[in-house]
Every structure is written in C-alpha cells, then in structure tokens.
Amino acid sequence: MTYDRKQDEFRLDVLKELGNIGAGHATTALSRLLGNKKLTLVVPQAMIVGMQESMGLCGGPESLVGAIYIRVSGGLCGHMALLLPFTSVQSLLGYLLGATPQEFSDMELSTLQEVGNIVVTSYLNALAEMTNTVLYPSVPAVAVDMAAAVWSSILAGAEVADYITIVQTGFQTDAEIIDGTIAFIPDEEDLAKLLEALGMGEL
Amino acid sequence: MEEVFVNIGEIKVLTQEGRLVAVGLGSCVGLILYDALAKVGGMAHVFLPTNRKGGDNPHPGKFADTAVAAMVEQMTALGAQKRRLKAKMAGGSQLFSYGASVMDVGRQNVEALQRELQTAGIPLVASDVLGSRGRKLIFDVGTGQVLVFVIGQEPVEL
Amino acid sequence: MANTILVVDDTAFMRMMIKNVVQKHGYQVIGEAGDGEEAIAKYKELRPDLVTMDITMPKLDGISAIKAIMEFDPNAKIIVCSAMGQKAMVIEALKSGAKDFLVKPFEADRVIEALQKAVG
C-alpha cells in the first residue's frame, strides 16, 4: 500500500497522538503496579521504517532484552510489544517478587507476562475508548533473549512487509532503574479503518 | 579480514576469504551454501517460508522458497558449481512461550528450507535449528568454519 | 467459617498476588485455575463461595467461563479481575453474571471491598 507523503504525515500525526494517550494509560498502570513510582513518558514517535532500521528500537541487536508480545484483534488488528532492557527486567522482577532473579523460572516469566499484559492492555483500553471500538488482546507471549532475535520474531509473526508503521513510546523511572519501549504495529489494512473510526476517513 | 553482515532478507556472497555474519536469528534462519573447492560461500537471512501476503518481492533472500535459487545463481556467477554446493543452517527457534496464538514461524522456515534444498539437490550437512534461543551465525568463507553463538553459552561449531 | 475462593488467572504471578491479598483478610483460597476450562471444572468440583476471574486466558476466556459457571450455579459469585477494562467488555461481563469488575492493576482494598459486597 502506498500513500502520498502529505497523507503519510497526517496519518503518522494521528497515530502519534493515539500513541501518546495509549502510552499515558499504560505507564499509569505500570506506575500503579510499582507502588506509584513516578514514570516519565518519552514523547511518542510514529514512523514508517524499513525492517532493518526498526531493529534499533530496542538497543543493540545482541543486547539481552525481555519482551512481551500481544496480538490485537477486534476493531483494529495489529501487534503490540513491550520491550525492556535486561537491567529493567531485573529491577522490575526484583520489585515485584522481592528478589533479583538469578534464573528465569516459570514465576519470573509469568510475572513478566503479567506486567506486559497490564501495560499493553491499558494502552488498548485507551485506544478502544478513543476509537469507539473493542480491542481484544491475545494471551501475552514472553521471551528473554537477544534484542534483534526477539524483535525479528515479532515482525515475522506479524508477517510485515519491507516497510512497517510503528508507534513507539519510551518511558523511564526517575532513578532510571526501569525503562522500556512500547511498540504498536497496526496492520496496514486496518490503518484506514482506524482513521475512519476517528472521523478522518475522508482525508 | 572483511566482515559482512547479512541483514534480514539479504543474500551475501564472498569468495576466497572474509566472514559472513547473521546477528539476531530468532525465527529467522541463516542459510549457508558453500563450494569448498572454489571457496565461494553465501549466506541468506531468511525471514518467512513464503511471500504469503503477495506483492512485489525485491528480496529473494527474505523467503525460503526464493532464497535457495537466488543464492545458487549468485554463487555460480562467482565460480561455484552447483553440484559441489553443501548447505548448513541455523535459527528457526521459537523464542516466545505461553502465548496461545504464538506463531511457529521458525519451524515453518526450517521445514521450507529443507524442502527447497532437497528439490535443488543440495545436501544439508549440518544444522542447529529450532529450540527456544536466539542465535548468531558466523561463516568464515576462507576456512569453511561455521560458528553458532547463543547468549550465555560457548560457541558451537557447525 | 472463612469464605472460600477460587482464583482464576493465566499467570502464576497474578494468582499469587490475589492469594496474598485475600488470605491476609481471612479468605481461604481453595483452588486455582489457569484458564477458563479449568475454572469451570474446579468450580464444579470445589463449589467455592467466591471466584476471581481473569478474562484474557488460553483455551477458554473468562467471559465464556462466567457464562458456563452461572448456568451451572445461578448463585455463583464471580468478581472479574482483568486488565481489559473496555466498556463493552465490562458490560458483557456484568450481563453474563459477574458481580463486579476490577481493572488491573488493582488496589488491595478494592479487591476486598468487592468480595465483601459479593458475599453480602
């Protein structure tokens, strides 16, 4: 699918705003989960990037990350991921389980899975409200491995084309102990539907 | 020594010497073809079994069903002989656990490549595939040595 | 005697969280389930006074499980604990027979309040 540039920019602007609100809800949820720790949102970016370019979203390709992936269906289909550098995974689990994990057993992975579930679903709740639709998250899948391996597996599952539309938001705690990225990849065919739902279908 | 990174969907070919490197293989598969006599080596970083969504495909290396033929063509152009080619591959893992609807693209990639190699009559002499860990693949075209790296483990020679 | 609870959530972490909260307030967790099918089976087997129910789960989702449990026992007292707080979902859960809907992450006080209200 191709758009002219002006339309592209407009779409990205809309996506960015949606990302802003979605991520606002998501970080509020995370903050509550962390005992009301203050979280700062990095201004969201909406972009159309090549696959290789998108590899840089979660740090160095070989750095260790924790990732939670959720498939979105309903009014707007797409893919969402929460990507956390390994140090953040450790701080998060340390806070929630009371001890920094030495290895990843079921309890650690399940905790990571629930964090992703709460963060991503909060994002979707906001998005659904704004677009007046219902969005269903899948059961979250979780992985801890090389950033590029994790991210490319998500893209493969999404069967993305060479260029991907991504809405990305970063967040961090004041002490910078926990930071991470929320990525949303709407299915291309559903982007038009999304704009329509917002009353912008004619543009 | 020259080190060439093979990104997703790419095919890279070297002769005589140099290293071909694929980083971050999750469900993707790094496919290596080698003519040891002519010292022509190639690597593809395969993303999906086939171009299911249709549309133009300017990157034959991206899909299992187009990668093998394209590699053979590029390698024979540099002096390799198809009947001497041997294949190795690594990747195709399933990194994610729990999710009910999680894709098993890795296994599909591996199986598609096995079929393509068989059709092309190229023997698959070694592979380190499936499982649940991400891999990095390094292929030294000068020596033919292939190493697979997994985080937290000693590299394994393929 | 303490009220008995069946805790339904697909993540072990969340089951642990809920268990910790309710046990502190004198409730007795008599069973756990990780998906909707297991929830129905455990409900029939254990007949708990209360159920906390997640929505997004493998095999069978929480809404379908609520419907099945309510059909089996119209007096079942089910509280939804889900991250999925969209209006349509809340309405569907309540229509299906849930007594209350808590959106994760929840405060411990809210969980107890909802449980107390449900047992009356």
Question: Tags for this entry?
Answer:
A: 203 residues, Chemotaxis protein chec, seven-stranded antiparallel sheet, 7 strands, globular, C: 120 residues, alpha/beta, five-stranded parallel sheet
3D architecture notes:
The complex is a heterotrimer of chains A (203), B (158) and C (120). With 203 residues, chain A is of the alpha+beta class. Chain A has one domain: CheC-like (Chemotaxis protein chec, 3-Layer(aba) Sandwich), CATH 3.40.1550. In chain A, 46% of the residues lie in helices and 29% in strands. Chain A has six helices and seven strands. In chain A, strands 1, 2, 3, 4, 5, 6 and 7 form a seven-stranded antiparallel sheet that branches. In chain A, strand 6 and strand 7 form a beta hairpin. In chain A, helix 1 crosses helix 4. With 158 residues, chain B is an alpha+beta fold. Helices cover 19% and strands 34% of the residues of chain B. Chain B has a five-stranded mixed sheet, with no helix packed on it. A five-stranded mixed sheet of chain B has the order 2-5-4-6-7, covered by helices on one side. With 120 residues, chain C is α/β, with parallel strands linked by helices. Helix content of chain C is 48%, strand content 20%. Chain C contains five helices and five strands, in the order E-H-E-H-E-H-E-H-E-H. Chain C has a five-stranded parallel sheet with strand order 2-1-3-4-5, with helices on both faces. In chain C, helix 3 links the parallel strand 3 and strand 4. Chain C is globular. The chains are: A alpha+beta (203), B alpha+beta (158), C alpha/beta (120). The interface between A and B is medium-sized, with 34 and 33 residues.
